[in-house]
Design brief:
By secondary structure, the chain is α+β, with helices and mostly antiparallel strands. It folds into two domains: 274 residues, no CATH class; 147 residues, no CATH class. A six-stranded antiparallel β-sheet has the order 8-9-10-11-13-12. The protein has a three-stranded antiparallel β-sheet with strand order 2-3-5. The protein has a two-stranded antiparallel ribbon with strand order 1-4. Strand 10 and strand 11 form a beta hairpin.
């Protein structure tokens, strides 16, 4: 039987009926979520953990963003299919966004792959749906509307997967979500006009380097920004060694391009919520003509899915992230690569620093949550289909709305669980079990 074929999907539909994905019941032996986070923190930079925890304490959605390890354990306790894909691993609404393709065209796609690993396809769908329900609750949206958001994401996933099955493999592999065209689909005129204006200004702007580059005479330096971007001398040597090692993993023509630049400065950078506490730095490289290039180096730890989906086939966790990103993302960064050596026991990957102005435009799409829910579902289907399991997935979830309803029920139920976990997390902070600081 073809592991990627429709027969496989039909077999799993009989073994794990679609309605079994509905709802969430906390297992009696569920591990304390705070204990999971504390354990995870032992592998991170201790001085940054208070920043991570403070960000997570903001509201249930911020907590959810940082608690991928908690949900990974929970998903493993739910009815699970054997239809595996290259999963995002941390698939929530804020890990979709906009970026420029190598050709300079703005696209919308999954944009975070730190936890990527082969895993059951429905784990990504459930995490995405739950994130929408949780975000809806934070925005004071009634539970019925939160359920609708989750169902819209599942429907977008289901319908687009069915479309991709009918396409030639090369055409399905090459599809992209064009950001400009996507914005035109918005029914909310005010949001659409604002985003079109911002996108046009961003693509035409001569501003660059994100305000991070300082140039005085022959000196090039990364500009500090409080705790967010700062120079840490004791970490600098690791970053420089990592950049040197990383170049070996680039294709030859890309190494030729990279060789036109020289590393001039390195600074530590605090990013996101889930990544806070891992080693993340920015390298400033400059060409002989004075053209700056900013590359981001990020630590890659074992995926939170590994204890439940199985370890990666790659011992090098940076390589795991890069292979996963290349599998899932339609337009991959030409500078994407990984370090070939472990530095102080840490693995890293390197990428072009994202254009935050474009990322913000993608985030503003979320103001139209129903539209955004469907868009993320469609985008996730395109990412999963690149691994070749589109026929199996489509056969499993079927042509009707049974899958959508089950995912909607799960999302609202898990949103309630996340709210409880967040309250326990805040209680742990109040009790001094978890330190926090402002960032």
């Amino acid at each position: 039987m073809d592991a990627f074929g429709a027969d496989t999907g039909a077999k799993w539909r009989r073994s794990v009926p679609v309605p079994e994905h509905a709802g969430w019941q906390m297992p009696a032996d569920r591990r304390d979520p705070v204990a999971i986070l504390v354990e995870q923190g032992k592998t991170r930079i201790a001085e940054l953990l208070p920043v991570r925890y403070a960000r997570m304490a903001t509201d249930p959605f911020a907590f959810f963003r940082g608690a991928a390890a908690v949900m990974a354990a929970d998903l493993a306790a739910t009815p699970t299919t054997g239809i595996k894909v290259q999963s995002c691993g941390d698939c929530h609404l804020s890990n979709f966004g906009a970026y420029a393709s190598p050709e300079g065209r703005p696209v919308f796609d999954v944009n975070d792959f730190d936890e990527t690993l082969p895993a059951p396809f429905e784990w990504d769908v459930k995490r995405l749906a739950a994130s929408l329900a949780i975000a809806g609750r934070v925005a004071k949206v009634p539970d019925e509307d939160c359920r609708r958001l989750a169902r819209l994401a599942a429907r977008g996933y289901r319908q687009h997967m069915a479309t991709l099955v009918q396409m030639p493999p090369l055409a399905a592999w090459s599809t992209r979500v064009d950001l400009a065209a996507t914005i035109k689909e918005l029914e909310v005129g005010k949001v659409r006009r604002y985003l079109e204006k911002r996108l046009s200004a961003t693509m035409e702007s001569n501003k660059a380097h994100f305000g991070l580059v300082e140039h005085r005479g022959d000196t090039w330096r990364i500009k500090e920004n409080g705790q967010l971007v700062r120079h840490l001398t004791r970490h600098e040597l690791d970053a420089r060694r990592a950049f040197k090692s990383y170049a070996e993993t680039l294709q030859e023509e890309r190494r030729v391009l990279l060789d036109r630049f020289r590393l001039r400065d390195v600074a530590f950078k605090v990013v996101g919520v889930g990544s806070v506490g891992t080693f993340c730095a920015v390298g400033l490289l400059v060409s002989d003509n004075g053209d700056p290039l900013l590359l981001q180096i990020k630590e890659a730890q074992q995926s939170v899915l590994a204890p439940f989906a199985g370890p990666s086939t790659y011992d090098n966790q940076g390589q795991r992230v890069v292979v996963g990103q290349r599998m899932l993302q339609a337009a991959t960064d030409v500078f994407l690569g990984w370090t070939t050596i472990a530095l102080d026991g840490r693995w890293f990957y390197v990428r072009h620093l994202k254009d935050q102005r474009l990322a913000n435009i993608g985030a503003r799409l979320a103001e139209a949550l129903p539209f955004y829910a469907s868009l993320c579902g469609r985008t996730l289907a395109r990412a999963h289909a690149r691994g070749g399991a589109a026929a199996a997935i489509s056969a499993y979830i079927g042509p009707d709305n049974e899958f959508d309803k089950a995912i909607g029920r799960f999302a609202v139920a898990y949103a309630g669980q996340t709210g409880q976990d967040w309250q326990e997390f805040r209680a742990a902070i109040a009790a001094g079990r978890i330190p926090t600081s402002q960032s």
